[in-house]
Amino acid sequence: MSRPMTIGEKILARASGRKSVAPGELILAKVDLCLGNDITAPLAIKTFEAAGGQRVFDRRRVALVPDHFTPNKDILSAEQAKVLREFARKHKLEHYWDQGECGIEHALLPEQGVVVPGQLIIGADSHTCTYGALGAFATGVGSTDLAAAMLTGKAWFKVPQTIKLEFTGRLPRDVGAKDLILLAIARLGVDGANYRALELTGPVIRALSVEGRLTMCNMAIEAGAKTGIVAPDAATRKYVTSRARFTPRYYASDPGAEYERVETFDVSKLEPVVAKPHLPSNVVPVSKAREIVIDQVVIGSCTNGRIEDLREAAKVLRGRRVSPRVRTIVFPATPTIWRQALHEGLLDVLTAAGCVISPPTCGPCLGGHMGILAKGERAVSTTNRNFVGRMGHTESEVYLASPGVAAASAIKGRIAAPREVRGADWARGVKK
Amino acid sequence: MKFRGKVHKFGHDVNTDEIIPARYLNTCDARTLAAHVMEDADAGFAGRVKPGDVLVAGKNFGCGSSREHAPLAIKGAGVACVVAESFARIFYRNAFNIGLPILECPAAAAEAQSGQELEVDADTGRITNLTTGRQHQAAPIPPFMQELVAAGGLMEYMKKQIQ
């Protein structure tokens, strides 16, 4: 009888053709999907071709997503996007999207059913860990790993230890997935889960939408984790069934599976939080950051650019105006989300409030384009990193928060919780 | 492989945005990247670093994005090796994949200061601070990683695997 295993171990065992695997073992495994973007894939393609690569191992299992510096921000990035486009055509890649169809990779691939439960996925992008939300084992690698996988269909892995995060209690109003993962990163530390997998469990996770789970797993890397995983359940099946382009495999962790440790979070008394500069672990309640005056708000990204996030922001902004001193940029993560937001009237609400709507792009999150910060400027952003210079000048600052907090902050011109906005209306006698 | 070089010391949690800011990621040319290496951690570094120098850092070096441009920029600047208290997972993997020697050694990393001279034996993991005279032993490179290095990098290793 094989040892009891976690979901992640089961996927790694299956992909490496073994009955079981244990933490610390090095394995060579078949990947079900590998992906790259317009920053990382050009380097992988160069390496692939330098190694004499004639064809990719499987044209259905290599996905290229030009999402970072697109729509092309300058000539060099246009050249990089062109490298992807030509490679995709030459190798007849099934999963390649160009403008009009392209979105932010970690929102697009689950939405398009390219990512399904039970897959082993490597991506030349650190936020590849997002897909664990569907019960896949997905991890970020570099361009050379992607090149090798495109050629051979394989990658090497050290089977990670797993830390179980258990979320219990009842979520208070205005507290959601983003707050939970920021608090988890604060407790673990930015390298607290280095080389480890996180398994997110408990009644709060079960009650969370698939979108909320994607938000949480997306930021597993900010604690250094190899991946974040949620056990697939009825909500996952419902999300996956209508869109799956591969056959899902639903795994659950065995009773008695080995965890390095268990961290428990009682969510019942939490407040909305922000992560202050310059680490995602630098988390404080919004009430302790209310004096921070801001210049820009960014709502979107692979972390919080899905339809629920836009609804959350629009709910706060409906019938209100953002502060004239705050540039508020909303970037829906995919064309499907963009159109959905249009049909639901969210874009009307947001633009009436003074927001500008961007096409899907990773642009501002990594200081690429479409919303760069000048020296001394501060932003509240629903993205995932607040490192020095992340969104622009090295003397600019980024505060990470949920879409609700970002929207409230845009209105107030300083860091604020949604209830402060509601409270102000109530005090002025405005009926909502 | 033995290296001897001048130390450039950095702190904890140096992330890949500081090593090579995203504004330069519209190219993967190592020489262009090297001109901006460590720019957001120390704007003068690219101008001061000399081939053969050693980069020393605290814990979690290379955290953040998966950009292989980070170790490429360091290698492109001629840095002989990186010694740190610890490395973030993806950076560690990328450095081996592109052939940038890196060693994990909390004691040597904590002791070393900018301007000192280090001698690093990448094969044995022996690190000597020539300025203070102290010797340190780095964590051994896992056997599998040694195989990668011996094969001539990941691509060569993988090609052998599929044959």
Shape of chain A: globular
What is the percent of helical residues of chain B?
Answer: 25-40%
Q: In order across it, which strands form the biggest sheet of chain B?
A: 4-3-2-1-5-6-7
Sequence stretches where pLDDT stays below 50 over 5 or more residues of chain A = none
Structural class of chain B: alpha/beta
- Rg of chain A is 21 Å
How far is the N terminus from the C terminus of chain A? 61 Å
What's the alpha carbon Rg of chain B, rounded to whole Å?
A: 15 Å
Instruction: List segments of chain B where confidence is low: pLDDT < 50 over at least 5 consecutive residues.
Output: none
Largest chain-chain contact?
A: A-B, 51 and 42 residues
Coarse shape of chain B: globular
Strand content of chain A: 15-25%
Oligomer: heterodimer
Number of helices of chain B: 8
Please give the number of β-strands of chain A.
18
Largest sheet of chain B: 7 strands, mixed
- Give the rounded overall mean pLDDT of chain B: 94
Overall pLDDT metric of chain A? 96
Q: List the strand order in the largest sheet of chain A.
A: 4-3-2-5-6
Largest sheet of chain A: 5 strands, parallel
Number of helices of chain A: 15
